[in-house]
């Protein structure tokens, strides 16, 4: 089966990774490094250099989104963001209503820079608030207070066209009533988008060590299910619908950049440890940059880029990745799109007897044209994916 390049005609996203943070949160497994002195000028120059090479090697398709992630990208100079945005938009045609997102932490130091980031070209802010409970903020290792979070959110809504923020729930000791109250407060503060993540224990994190030592616990499956049900019911009452496992938005306010990932479309990744998926000559490649910031910088300075992986993906590789991404969406995966993108028949890639068994158990919904998870299936997504793949 020949792979369709429809995604190229739709456009491409751009992810820019800024690896530095002021502190490492105990739940975080992202490629981030604590640094009080950041070599701003060197990293700005290297990012522009790597971006220029990356974008000159791909087809001239519309740039649909730019996402500054981290780490804490609001620690970069706004002038660096401006250079990167200008470089990207000069090398590729720009899609109408391009979305340019800046992740930021709600500290007073960064709030002063929000206007400068907006002037640089960012039109959407995503704030890492994580909780509206002071005790929980401390337990999560956050550097800001509740009042700082609300102040930052208020300011961001005055500056940016669109604003979202993150909360972590299913925390140790959190009751359903407590989460319901916190969520309602969050919804009273938001405009049209929230990211709501159930706390998970990720390998290599401080929480993982504490969990092994029995110092922290997580809610059981029954409470986790109850918390998810509360989340989906209350957000729906406020007009925000679940469109992905952890994301809720009013119609049209979904994160376009993150939909690029979940719809398994093309995106470029630059910066330390950044991943990408890029179609060249009808072959989809997985790309990855050197992870360590020091090695990344040295490599870019010596050879212009720090690409460490460029691997052509097989149809089975693509099928596995598209399932992993697409089943996170409440709308699921269209069979036709799956087959065109992956270059393989759906029934050849999927364990069909297991699929039917999971439908019977009400973990999946399937009608020959579309496969999606049910609410209880989304709570068991990893196990479902493992069962579905041949």
Throw out a few tags for this protein.
390 residues, alpha/beta, TIM Barrel, Arc Repressor Mutant, subunit A, 2 domains, 9-stranded mixed β-sheet, 18 helices, 17 strands, globular, iron, coproporphyrinogen oxidase activity
Give the count of helical stretches: 18
Amount of beta strand? 15-25%
Approximate helicity band: 40-55%
Stated plainly, the CATH topology of the largest domain is called: TIM Barrel
Q: What does this entry look like structurally?
A:
- There is one protein chain.
- This protein is α/β, with parallel strands linked by helices and 390 residues long.
- The chain has two domains: 256 residues, Alpha-Beta Barrel (TIM Barrel); 76 residues, Arc Repressor Mutant, subunit A (Orthogonal Bundle).
- It contains 18 helices and 17 strands.
- The strands form four sheets. A nine-stranded mixed beta sheet has the order 9-10-8-7-6-5-4-1-11, sandwiched between helices. Strands 12-13-14 form a three-stranded antiparallel beta sheet, with no helix packed on it. Strands 15-17-16 form a three-stranded antiparallel beta sheet.
- α2 runs parallel beside α3.
- The chain is globular, with a radius of gyration of 21 Å.
- The N terminus is likely disordered.
């Amino acid at each position: 089966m020949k792979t369709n390049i429809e995604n190229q005609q739709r456009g491409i996203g751009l992810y820019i990774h800024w690896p530095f943070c002021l502190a490492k949160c105990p739940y975080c497994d992202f490629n981030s490094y604590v640094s009080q002195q950041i070599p701003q000028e060197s990293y700005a120059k290297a990012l522009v250099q790597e971006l220029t090479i990356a974008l000159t090697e791909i087809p001239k398709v519309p740039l649909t989104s730019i996402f500054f992630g981290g780490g804490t990208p609001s620690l970069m100079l706004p002038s660096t963001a401006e250079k990167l945005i200008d470089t990207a938009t000069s090398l590729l045609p720009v899609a109408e209503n391009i979305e340019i997102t800046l992740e930021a932490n709600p500290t007073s130091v960064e709030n002063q820079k929000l206007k400068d980031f907006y002037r640089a070209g960012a039109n959407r802010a995503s704030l890492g608030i994580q909780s509206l409970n002071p005790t929980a903020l401390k337990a999560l290792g956050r550097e800001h207070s509740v009042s700082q979070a609300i102040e930052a959110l208020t300011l961001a809504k005055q500056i940016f066209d669109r604003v979202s923020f993150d909360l972590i729930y299913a925390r140790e000791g959190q009751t359903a009533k407590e989460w319901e109250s916190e969520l309602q407060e969050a919804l009273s503060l938001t405009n049209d988008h929230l990211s709501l993540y159930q706390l998970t224990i990720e390998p290599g994190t401080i929480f993982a060590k504490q969990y092994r030592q029995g110092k922290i616990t997580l809610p059981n499956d029954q409470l986790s299910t109850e918390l998810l049900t509360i989340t989906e019911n209350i957000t729906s009452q406020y007009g925000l619908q679940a469109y992905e496992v952890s994301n809720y938005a009013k119609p049209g306010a979904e994160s376009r950049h993150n939909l690029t990932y979940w719809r398994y479309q093309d995106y470029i990744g630059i910066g330390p440890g950044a991943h990408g998926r890029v179609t060249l000559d009808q072959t989809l490649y997985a790309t990855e940059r050197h992870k360590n910031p020091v090695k990344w910088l040295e490599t870019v300075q010596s050879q212009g880029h720090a690409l460490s992986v460029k691997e052509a993906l097989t149809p089975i590789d693509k099928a596995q990745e598209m399932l992993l991404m697409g089943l996170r969406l409440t709308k699921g995966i269209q069979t036709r799109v799956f087959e065109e993108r992956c270059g393989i028949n759906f029934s050849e890639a999927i364990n069909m007897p297991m699929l039917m068994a999971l439908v019977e158990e009400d973990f999946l919904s399937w009608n020959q044209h579309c496969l999606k998870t049910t609410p209880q299936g989304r709570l068991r997504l990893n196990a479902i994916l493992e069962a579905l793949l041949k």
